[in-house]
Amino acid sequence: MAKVTFLGAAQEVTGLCHLLESEATGRIILDCGMHQGGDAIKRIHKDNFDFDIQNLDAVILSHAHLDLSGLLLKLVSKGFSGPIFCTSATADLLRIMLNDAAGIYERDLARENLWAVALVVFPGGYSTLDELFETLTLIQTKKMKALPVLLLGRDYWERIIDFEALLEKGAIDRSEYEIFQFVETPQEAWQTIRDFYTD
Prior knowledge:
alpha/beta; Rossmann fold; 2 domains; five-stranded mixed β-sheet; 9 helices; 8 strands; elongated
């Protein structure tokens, strides 16, 4: 009797991978896809294959998409040396696609390890205010390392938020008010960032 184990994409779209086991076929992986989007980078590092790679007989790729083939390189690097069956068109595309998968992985990894050196806030709506106050709160509570928080256009920001009233009412104290600075030009913003890191 054949047994199919759903190893990926059971409750999501990407990362398709099935293990087919039967006496007639042996142990075959049908597709070996990478997760894309969201926490894909963490999953590539963390996820281990939920099967014994050494006892696999073959891999079959249904067609050429990264969410069906993107983890082939990891599978081979972990010890799989059996045949990989696919159409000739898929085989032609795999070199390009797996190279692309590595590029996506590297870009996502770089983005995950990139930290901002400043927050320059331009006049804007609710989402701008949300990002501003989230950053100010994280710095205020020391959940985030201090960095320059620059509000471009004092006139705009003082019309939107009455900082003096917040100080007078004790909603914020002087040290919290000094978490951010007003700047008027991109050049002034750049100089303020430089000064922050050279002082």
